[in-house]
Design goal:
Chain lengths: 372, 203, 123
């Protein structure tokens, strides 16, 4: 069957295909130019048939194309031109001016009177542009990560500087406060009892001691949010905090088993604070009880004592700054520590029946304590 | 069937010429000079076929498959181990290859790219064989897959995989070490014919 | 008349046989070597008129061979016959003194033409 006899019956079929089809002979003259490639290229079949393809598209004379097309025409296997390694085989602009991305196959056919090469061009523009968008998103994400890293570094640096500064300031203030207290105490001893001057000096001493406590207290909480949160076993943390709180005759009744929570490393201070409050201000606390309960969305750690409980009018403001005996900062900072990882705390006890603190942990911040 | 020293030498030279042609094309496409090494050839046949994994490893390869028939019949593969495929992808597209399969788009484009590189190699070798031996073959369209070698070979029909000619090639593109292998899988009769054609060129 | 002697240096005996066949059909005498070092020794012994050398060979490869004959100021014309079709390789060989650069597989007429050109130009 000759080339012409081969091509004639397939023209109509080729025009139905959703891919570009071009057939060239050994001299690279176009023998078939289907409807799709005509539409994409803007060149009609009438215009192209009989023309030398490499004269109409001179880039096909570049060695990268010429050698491979000639290899096919010389009897070689089909050859593939991918979109990533090659410019479009037949330039086909889109309405917006961008070029269609193409995957092109060139396949030899032997005919009685010669060899032809069938060139099939698939439009993979959508796939290619999808890739470009994905690449652009990747690049953007990487840029954002880099930016974030820079900001984190800057924050870390600033945090360290602030810590250093507050450390120095605290040290200096404490020195002055010590001098103040010392001198005020001497004066107190020198003054006769029941005098107005003694009364004023005692007020000064009490106030100065409060300042001293507050300054010391803030050094404890200097590290708030400075370290990465982690997983902590509740039982271990509570037991350690209890031993640090100088409980005297107060006992700790802690439920067997428990879980781990994802929290700021200052979690121990939260428990320490609750225990110290109970021991010092709880009004006759003999036992502190810890129980846990797991619900569908959150788990609750209850810390209860058998003391006098918290007056109702106090309860609402319990976690505000400056409220409470001593420094007035303990519960405020405890709440801040827990909130770093989305944990909340509230007081749900009854006056006269003891305090009840409920620490609510979202379940995604809870895991079994079987983890190493 | 065994191949003697001269026959192996001839095959090595045919592969060498084919790889040289392919390297020339890849060099123009990438804009980089490519350094070549002498290919290493051996034949796995008969009962050794069972030990294909011991010889070629069980890892996944990026493979371009080309069937051929005519004077002799068989299947040719151009295969790259995953590491070399990744190096190629990174060098050509600048992308990190996706092995998780979560980026289907990326994988299609990477497969398309690897298919062209494998196609260039395999065409170089088959073109070299058919030109020098003066034979004409009919080919299937190339196809791409990522599989262990044993699986690739299973695709050839059982009477056509009695012999596997393995050519180990190495190219350095942009100082990157790209390893590849060409496999020619043929039945006994086809290999006989190939050998006879080689002998005819020497007479 | 002395027959033109061609030294064929290629590690492939298959390739050497093909070249030898082509050249002996044209009346040339052929000697061969399977690497550059053996080729160098044969140059001294046989004084060939033309050298055809491959590039990719074990032991002394084609580039090293070209460098060596340049250093020894051997004036015999060299045709590089290689599977490496890269332009950079061609340029390198010409810079090293190769008189001609052909790609494998070369047609018989192409090879003969290259030899005749070199002989007639009296290089």
């Amino acid at each position: 069957m000759s080339v012409a006899e081969f091509i004639r019956p397939i023209i109509q079929f080729a025009d139905l295909l959703p891919v570009g089809v071009c057939i060239i002979d050994e001299k690279k003259k176009v023998r078939l130019w289907n409807r799709m490639i005509a539409r994409w290229s803007g060149r009609s079949a009438e215009e192209m048939n009989g023309q030398h393809l490499d004269l109409i598209y001179p880039h096909l004379n570049a060695p990268a194309y010429r050698r491979r097309i000639e290899q096919v025409l010389d009897g070689g296997p089909p050859t593939i031109f991918s979109s990533q390694l090659n410019a479009p085989f037949i330039p086909c602009p889109l309405p917006d001016g961008r070029m269609r991305l193409q995957h092109t196959s060139v396949i030899r056919q032997d005919r009685a009177d010669g060899i032809i090469a069938i060139i099939i061009i698939e439009d993979i523009t959508e796939l290619g542009h999808g890739i470009e968008r994905a690449r652009s998103m990747c690049d953007q994400a990487l840029e954002e990560v880099e930016e974030r890293k820079k900001v984190e570094k800057a924050l870390l640096f600033t945090n360290r500087k602030l810590q250093l500064l507050s450390g120095i300031t605290r040290h200096d203030i404490l020195n002055e406060v010590t001098v103040l207290l010392g001198n005020a105490t001497f004066l107190d001893e020198m003054l006769p009892d029941e005098t107005l001057e003694r009364k004023y000096i005692n007020t000064i001493i009490r106030s100065t001691k409060r300042i001293q406590n507050q300054i010391s207290f803030t050094s404890d909480y200097e590290g708030l949010g400075g370290e990465e949160p982690g997983w902590f076993d509740i039982r271990d943390v509570a037991q350690k905090a209890f031993s640090m709180a100088r409980p005297g005759n107060t006992t700790l009744d802690i439920q067997e088993g428990c879980f781990q929570v994802f929290a700021d490393p200052m979690l121990e201070k939260v428990f320490f604070n609750l225990f110290e409050n109970a021991v010092r201000h709880g009004g006759g606390v003999t036992t502190i009880t810890i129980r846990y309960d797991t619900g569908p969305d959150e788990s609750v750690i209850s810390v209860a004592d058998d003391g006098a409980g918290i007056p109702a009018n106090f309860r609402e403001r319990l976690f505000e700054k400056g409220v409470g005996r001593n420094t007035g900062l303990g519960l405020f900072l405890s709440k801040e520590i827990l909130e770093i990882t989305g944990i909340s705390i509230e007081e749900a006890g009854q006056e006269g029946k003891g305090a009840l603190f409920q620490i609510r942990v979202p379940n995604d911040k809870v895991r079994s304590n079987k983890y190493p | 069937m065994d191949l003697n020293t001269e026959e192996l030498d001839a095959l090595r030279e045919l592969v060498n010429i084919g790889v040289g042609k392919a390297a020339g094309i890849l060099s123009e496409m990438t804009g980089s000079t490519i350094e070549l090494q002498i290919p290493v050839i051996h034949l796995i046949s008969g009962d050794q076929y069972q030990e294909i994994e011991a010889v070629l490893g069980g890892e996944h390869y990026s493979a371009v498959r080309l069937g051929f028939e005519g004077a002799f019949t068989g299947t040719a593969f151009s295969i790259f181990p995953a590491k070399s495929a990744d190096i190629l992808i990174a060098a050509i597209t600048g992308d990190e290859p996706d092995h998780s399969g979560s980026l289907a788009h990326f994988h299609s484009i990477h497969a398309e790219t690897l298919m062209e590189v494998g196609n260039i190699l395999i065409n170089g070798v088959m073109g070299s064989i058919t030109n020098i031996l003066g034979t004409r073959l009919i080919y299937t369209l190339p196809s791409y897959s990522e599989e262990p070698v044993a699986k690739l070979i299973e695709e050839a029909s059982s009477d056509q995989r009695e012999n596997i000619i393995v050519a180990q090639t190495r190219m350095f593109i942009q100082n990157l070490n790209i390893e590849g292998k060409i496999l020619l899988i043929m039945g006994g009769k086809s290999l006989d014919i190939l050998v006879r054609k080689i002998q005819e060129t020497q007479d | 008349m002395k027959m033109t002697t061609v030294l064929i240096i290629d590690d492939s005996s298959f390739q050497r046989t093909i070249i030898r066949k082509t050249l002996t059909n044209e009346g040339y005498t052929c000697i061969d070597a399977d690497n550059g070092r053996v080729g160098l020794d044969l140059i001294e012994e046989e004084q060939p008129d033309i050298i055809i050398v491959d590039l990719l060979m074990p032991g002394m490869d084609g580039i090293e061979f070209l460098t060596a004959i340049r250093e020894k100021e051997i004036a015999i014309p060299v045709i590089v016959l290689t599977s490496d079709i890269q332009d950079a390789t061609r340029e390198k060989c010409i810079q090293l003194g190769a008189s001609s650069f052909l790609n494998k597989p070369t047609r018989a007429d192409e090879l003969i033409h290259a030899i005749q050109q070199l002989l007639s130009s009296g290089e």
